[in-house]
């Protein structure tokens, strides 16, 4: 069975995007589409980027473990909030920390916002950063507007039928790319 790592990118107090990460974990596993693991950047608390992992003399064990999890994953699903039109520094940090692990890795993106625009402004800068290091960007997105109203704390969507339908379409693209890269 394929394995998808879900990155929950927010390190902000009271973050709501982890709700969407939990939703995807539940959705994927309940349908046996793949095995999953959530890598919550709030739990890692990496220091500000100084050097790529491969050039560090004494890398943090957590950074080595994170790199191994990305390397072993068949695909990655990034759930990121939008902060002032961009993505969080915590996500930029791990993108820059790794290089080889992202290369040709199928990646799907879910953008999350508290407002009505669903984090759509974040996509341009995030896509460019991932494209620049050779990641394989899936041409489908999963925007989430008004996340507080859209998902509860356990990751249950307010409109389960419509959300599941959108998720199935989004994930079918990610899984197609994962299959092609296997």
How many angstroms does the end-to-end distance come to?
11 Å
Beta-strand percentage range? 15-25%
Helix content: 40-55%
Q: Report the CATH C-level class.
A: Alpha Beta
**Would you identify the CATH architecture?**
3-Layer(aba) Sandwich
pLDDT under 50 segments (min length 5)? none
Estimate the global geometry from the Cα principal axes: globular
Radius of gyration from the alpha-carbon trace, in angstroms: 15 Å
How many domains, as an integer? 1
**In the CATH hierarchy, what is the superfamily?**
Flavodoxin domain
CATH topology: Rossmann fold
- In round numbers, the mean pLDDT is 91
Give, in spatial order, the strands making up the sheet with the most strands: 2-1-3-4-5
Spell the H/E element sequence: EHEHHEHEHEHH
Count of individual helical segments: 7
Structural class: alpha/beta
The count of strands amounts to 5
What does the largest sheet look like? Answer: 5 strands, parallel
Offer a quick outline of the entry:
It comes from Rurimicrobium arvi. Helix content is 42%, strand content 18%. The chain is an alpha/beta fold.
Keyphrases for this structure?
182 residues; alpha/beta; Rossmann fold; 7 helices; globular
């Amino acid at each position: 069975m394929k394995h998808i790592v879900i990155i929950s990118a927010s390190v902000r107090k009271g973050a709501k995007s982890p709700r969407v990460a939990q939703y995807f974990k539940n959705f994927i596993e309940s349908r046996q589409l793949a095995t999953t693991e959530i890598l919550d950047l709030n739990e890692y608390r990496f220091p500000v980027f100084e050097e790529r992992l491969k050039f560090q003399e004494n890398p943090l064990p957590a950074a080595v473990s994170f790199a191994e999890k990305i390397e072993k994953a068949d695909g990655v699903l990034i759930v990121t909030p939008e902060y002032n039109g961009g993505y969080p520094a915590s996500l930029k940090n791990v993108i820059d920390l790794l290089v080889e692990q992202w290369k040709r890795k199928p990646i799907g993106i879910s953008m999350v916002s508290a407002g009505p625009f669903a984090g759509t402004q974040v996509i341009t800068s995030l896509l460019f950063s991932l494209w620049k290091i050779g990641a394989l960007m899936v041409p489908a997105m999963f925007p989430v507007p008004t996340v507080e109203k859209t998902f509860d704390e356990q990751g249950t969507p307010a409109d389960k039928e419509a959300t599941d339908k959108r998720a199935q379409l989004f994930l079918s693209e990610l899984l197609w790319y994962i299959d092609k890269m296997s």
